[in-house]
């Protein structure tokens, strides 16, 4: 199976060229175009327990497996938000932000990982996704994606994390003192320590929501 990421980094999509019998698992609703010889199969990875954990992680309970029944099939997938897509070879466990998963080869397993209080304060929620196995993982983001090789300490704003190697330890901390935290507009950051990779996005959905909020039209009350 071959893949090509197109239209990046603003409106990225991924095109799969699939031989007969090859398949890819993807988020429901990600398909934007396909040839006639592809068969979709909906499943619940990990059964009811897996479904519950995926729901807590902010992901869809179901996954769709697209299988090529013909010799030369094509599948186009896109994430729900405008932004980038990155293909990551999975050889060791990865931790993925909620809503970041787009697709994966069948050798990759997705499970939920308890992040506790630090996950809550990081903005990623109490549960995050953990990708294991062997294969390729495609992640989507809001904005372009940058990759950083960490060997020591690296900090990322809480709203910009896409994924990171599970070899890294992480914690939520302030940029500076309390005064800097509240007045600089930076707030909290996630501090990664160790050796591994971090992927982060150039835009934050939370920041966009905060920017747009003052422009919301307040509808006048009508007399009943």
Q: How does the SSE layout of this entry go?
A:
Layout: E1 2-6, E2 13-18, E3 23-26, E4 31-34, E5 38-43, H1 47-56, E6 63-68, E7 73-77, E8 85-90, E9 94-96, E10 101-105, E11 108-114, H2 116-121, E12 127-133, E13 135-140, E14 145-157, E15 161-165, E16 169-174, H3 178-183, E17 188-201, H4 205-212
Antiparallel strand pairs: 1-2, 2-7, 3-6, 3-10, 4-7, 5-6, 8-13, 9-12, 9-15, 10-13, 11-12, 14-17, 15-17, 16-17
Describe the structure.
Strands 9, 11, 12, 14, 15, 16 and 17 form a seven-stranded antiparallel beta sheet that branches. Helices cover 13% and strands 48% of the residues. The protein is globular and about 55 Å long. It has 224 residues and is mainly β. The chain has one domain (2-209): Double-stranded beta-helix (4-Layer Sandwich), CATH 3.60.160.
Put the structure in a nutshell:
This protein has four helices and 17 strands. With 224 residues, it is mostly beta strands.
Give keywords.
13% helix; 4 helices; 48% strand; six-stranded antiparallel sheet; Double-stranded beta-helix; seven-stranded antiparallel sheet; mainly beta; 224 residues
